[in-house]
Q: What sequence folds into this?
């Protein structure tokens, strides 16, 4: 009985040992793949590969028993086969027998298809290459094909194990659950044939993207032209925003299309794409805002600034999150998905701007921009949003929206490219029309300025009249084409002379028109009352409320041949008598208060005494360091009794900022021919 029990135990043990020795169902040892004489071509390493998730460098050893590993195909990712949404490490192994003819002494290589994401290649336990860097400091690339030489002995045959150590980065909101590992079988073959295959693939890539490259070249030319237009006139910011938008589109295409050629890693690609995309969106916000003349709407301008700040903030936030994509974790993925959704939803602000633009009854070119911007950004944003969370929703919208609608010489053209090209042409046409309108406006302004110059030349005397007992010199140097300084010399019936010098607030055409008003009024008043104070009082009453919020400072002298003079001042700089500044009572400028009173003051001039009257353009001349010419320099300059031309030239050389007018009035010793003063008119 006991021996029977022992026999049963022995038989059971043998049975259990035999069962344990058999491979598990679905995990039989893969058959050795025999690769015959390769010759000049290549052979796919297809069929069943041994596959296992996890990581152990010992799995590269050709002697390692991988019979218990599962089988997987190399023609598709592990996510599409047995391990959906798996991320981390996994290994592929394949037992090979490579035969070569005795005469075939060619170098063999392996052509690796795109792999998700970083990998290392081992042949018989020896590392022969890698693409990217595996954790803990991962760097990975997508879409890259790469070839590696195989260290085979120069004999007729070689047996060994080809092993791939692969690491898949955590899934982002844009990834599918089907990602991971090999995307196609690797190929082993003649190194020259593999190099030719890679070259042909690069050529096909360039051919397929030639429409985009031609468009990019056109965009670069337009961007350069627009940037030069902005440099020539910094006030035309429309051209700056257009140039930046175009440059962002060019950079987006180059980085996205040629990332493999440039060797850009996925982390660098993500951060650069976020930066470029944000630059493009911020530029189009500002471009539409100014093109539709919406910048005057303070509320909309504030919202535009908020949306730009939001874009920049979320781009930076997503860039920070991208740096941690090597780490697995649902919280990080939810944060990344939320940031991406908000970031792309903010693109709909383009629709707000186009709606507000259409409400302003735009002309046809800008209406076309509004329509095309709405269509292009609506289509583009929906396309990008359809990518987020595809592995949860299983939506196929993204693939359909990205599908080519036609081809041009082998280059695929998508709906989004058509819409963006139409938007580009619409914006370019609208800007061309805008530039033409601005040119017509400038020409009209030049005509107005020329007319104003002609009027001012009539008002400012070219030749000074003779003044008994005095020598008068004058210089008038406006800061712009026309200015706000003025002077008049009016002969009176009693042989005396009124000398009026003044400065109207502001510059340019508006100031020049106010000068015309003042000169006409002064000449009218002088016919009825020659008292300087009476002239200023009458002038002040007529100017209040007629200078559009401005004012005018004016000093009036009544000169008699004997040297007895009368002076009245309305807020103007005190004249210099010889080298000393005259002391005057404070007074308001003209045009501020209708009830202001101005008073006469007697001044006695002796032989060779000189009065110097000037406007604040002399004092406010500013050098390169921002230093004003100032009172002290003026006083020091007048110590040498310079003429009017020297004073004006000194201030102008120091750094003219405002209109400069200088009058010098010198009491003569004896009567002789009066020296005619010189009037200088120049564009400022």
A:
């Amino acid at each position: 009985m006991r021996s029977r029990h022992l026999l049963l135990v022995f038989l059971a043990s043998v049975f259990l040992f035999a069962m344990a020795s058999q491979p598990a169902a679905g995990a039989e040892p893969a058959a050795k793949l025999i690769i015959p004489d390769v010759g000049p071509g290549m052979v796919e390493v297809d069929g069943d590969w041994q596959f296992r998730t996890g990581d152990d460098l010992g799995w590269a050893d050709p002697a390692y028993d991988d019979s218990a590993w599962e089988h997987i195909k190399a023609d598709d990712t592990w996510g599409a086969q047995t391990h959906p949404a798996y991320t981390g490490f996994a290994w592929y192994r394949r037992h090979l027998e490579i035969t070569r003819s005795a005469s075939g002494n060619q170098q063999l290589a392996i052509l690796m298809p795109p792999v998700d994401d970083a990998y290392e290649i081992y042949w018989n336990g020896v590392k022969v290459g890698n693409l990217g860097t595996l954790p803990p400091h991962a760097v990975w690339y997508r879409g890259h094909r790469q070839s590696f030489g195989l260290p085979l002995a120069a004999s007729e045959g070689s047996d060994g194990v080809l092993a791939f150590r692969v690491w898949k980065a955590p899934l982002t909101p844009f990834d599918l659950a089907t990602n991971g590992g090999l995307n196609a079988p690797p190929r082993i073959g003649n190194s020259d044939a593999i190099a030719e295959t890679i070259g042909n693939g690069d050529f096909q890539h360039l051919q397929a993207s030639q429409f985009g490259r031609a468009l990019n070249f056109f965009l670069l030319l337009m961007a350069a032209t627009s940037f030069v237009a902005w440099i020539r006139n910094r006030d035309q910011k429309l051209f700056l925003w257009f140039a930046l938008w175009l440059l962002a589109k060019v950079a987006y295409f180059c980085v996205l299309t040629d990332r493999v050629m440039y060797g850009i890693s996925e982390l660098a690609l993500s951060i650069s794409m976020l930066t470029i995309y944000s630059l493009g969106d911020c530029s189009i916000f500002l471009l539409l805002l100014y093109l539709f003349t919406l910048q005057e709407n303070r509320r909309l301008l504030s919202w535009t600034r908020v949306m730009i700040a939001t874009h920049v903030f979320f781009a930076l936030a997503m860039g920070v999150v991208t740096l941690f994509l090597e780490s697995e974790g649902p919280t990080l993925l939810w944060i990344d998905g939320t940031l991406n959704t908000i970031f792309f939803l903010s693109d709909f602000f383009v629709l707000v701007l186009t709606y507000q633009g259409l409400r302003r009854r735009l002309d046809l070119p800008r209406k076309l921009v509004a329509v095309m911007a709405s269509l292009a950004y609506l289509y583009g944003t929906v396309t990008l949003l359809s990518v987020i969370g595809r592995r949860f929703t299983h939506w196929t919208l993204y693939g359909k929206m990205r599908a080519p609608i036609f081809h041009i010489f082998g280059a695929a053209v998508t709906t989004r490219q058509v819409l963006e090209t139409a938007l580009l042409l619409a914006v370019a046409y609208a800007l061309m029309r805008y530039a033409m309108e601005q040119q017509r406006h400038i020409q009209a302004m030049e005509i107005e300025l020329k007319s104003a110059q002609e009027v001012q030349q009539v008002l400012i005397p070219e030749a000074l009249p003779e003044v008994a007992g005095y020598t008068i010199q004058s210089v008038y140097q406006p800061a712009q084409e026309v200015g706000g300084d003025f002077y008049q010399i009016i002969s009176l019936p009693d042989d005396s002379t009124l000398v009026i010098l003044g400065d109207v607030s502001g510059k340019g055409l508006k100031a020049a028109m106010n000068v015309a008003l003042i000169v006409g009024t002064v000449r009218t008043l002088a016919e009825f009352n020659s008292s300087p104070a009476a002239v200023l009082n009458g002038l002040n009453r007529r100017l209040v409320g007629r200078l559009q919020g401005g004012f005018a400072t004016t000093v009036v002298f009544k000169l008699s041949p004997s040297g007895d003079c009368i002076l009245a001042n309305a807020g103007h700089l005190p004249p210099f008598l010889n080298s000393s500044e005259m002391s005057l009572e404070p007074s308001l400028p003209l045009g501020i208060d209708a009830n202001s009173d101005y008073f006469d003051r007697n001044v006695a001039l002796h032989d060779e005494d000189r009065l110097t009257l000037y406007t604040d353009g002399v004092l406010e001349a500013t050098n390169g360091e921002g230093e004003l010419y100032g009172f002290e320099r003026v006083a020091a300059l007048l110590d040498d009794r310079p003429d009017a031309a020297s004073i004006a030239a000194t201030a102008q050389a120091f750094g003219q900022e405002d209109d400069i007018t200088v009058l010098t009035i010198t009491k003569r010793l004896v009567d002789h021919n009066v020296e005619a003063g010189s009037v200088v008119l120049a564009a400022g």
